[in-house]
Design brief:
mainly alpha, 74% helix, 327 residues
């Protein structure tokens, strides 16, 4: 066997491990962040909370990229602002606001509709992916699941509860649009620089919105509890620096639908942790609705993959394609 085959095999194994660890990060760490958001929200205003997380994590990653000699270009700035708005102002901002009113596990179940919304967008945004019978069945089942959640007491007891449910759907939709946009935007090829720019942009937008909403009036860091502070630190280091970097890297090497499979696991982790550590209610309606939504995501994912076509030749963007080819 030629000598050059061994390094290639080692490189493939390292790449496969990298893919595996990236999926573990977005599956498990992101599942735990919903409860961490709730704990951080206890003594930190939601938009300030989200802004601190993204701006700090983005600055850490940007400093690391700068040290490695990686610099952004002017053409990267506007797409980073747009994506930061979709992901962090529209996505996280509304999620953080809602988690002051809704249990973290319930919020995670709503956010799991991301994969369903991405599949719907794929039917209209080039390159279009025509929904199959499995996809349509999944969309119907998912709609029933969301309707069950919206019918829970949390959302029916007041106008604020109803607005919270709608805000969660908006949050999921905003993140989904960001996922689709990220595949076409002129963002840096380096996933860490990509993540840092979008997080910094999102953090600035969140702080501006927090100022407009009046969250800075009366807020002082001395009022942050130990649990909220530790939760914010966990969100910064694990939820953003590690998991979001892994997420942006995966978007460069996997289809949006496959990356969105983290929504299979995130709500399960969030519901269990919320029940165990925060005594969040786990009623039959929530269990049935959650099962329907997760089943819907599976049908949508499988139906979408049946129609996926790879028209582009093998390139650097797809060099890891073999690692999860059968997933």
């Amino acid at each position: 066997m030629p000598d050059h085959v061994v390094p290639a095999t080692s490189r493939e194994r390292a790449q496969s491990l990298q893919v595996f660890l990236a999926f573990v990060a977005i599956y498990l760490i992101w599942g735990s962040t919903f409860l961490a958001i709730r704990f951080a929200d206890e003594t930190i205003p939601p938009l300030i909370n989200a802004g601190l997380r993204q701006l700090t994590a983005g600055a850490i990653l940007f400093a690391w990229c700068w040290k490695r000699g990686i610099r952004p270009e002017k053409r990267h700035l506007l797409p980073a602002v747009i994506l930061g708005g979709l992901f962090f102002l529209g996505g996280h901002g509304t999620l953080y606001w809602t988690e002051k009113r809704v249990p973290s596990g319930l919020a995670a179940l709503f956010m799991s509709t991301e994969a369903i919304i991405i599949a719907l967008l794929g039917a209209f945004v080039p390159p279009k992916v025509k929904p199959t019978g499995k996809s349509w069945f999944g969309l119907i089942v998912g709609t029933v699941g969301v309707a069950l959640l919206m019918g829970s007491d949390v959302f029916q007891t007041s106008l604020a509860g109803l607005l919270a449910g709608l805000a969660l759907l908006f949050s999921s939709a905003s993140w989904s649009v960001g996922v689709v946009y990220s595949r076409r935007a002129a963002l840096p090829r380096d996933p860490y620089l990509n993540a840092s720019l979008t997080m910094i942009a999102g953090g600035v937008l969140l702080f501006l919105t927090a100022g407009i909403a009046g969250e800075f009036s009366g807020f002082h860091p001395s009022r942050i509890s130990l649990r909220s502070g530790l939760s914010l630190g966990y969100l910064i280091l694990f939820g953003s620096v590690i998991a979001y970097s892994a997420y942006m890297w995966l978007l460069e090497h996997r289809s949006p639908t496959l990356v969105a499979t983290h929504t299979f696991v995130n709500p399960v982790v969030a519901v269990i942790l919320g029940w165990l550590l925060a005594s969040e209610p786990l009623g039959l309606r929530t269990i049935i609705a959650g099962a329907l939504i997760i089943a819907a995501i599976m049908f949508v994912g499988r139906g979408t993959k049946d129609e996926v076509v790879q028209p582009k030749p093998r390139s650097e963007r797809h060099e890891f394609a073999a690692a999860l080819a059968d997933d």
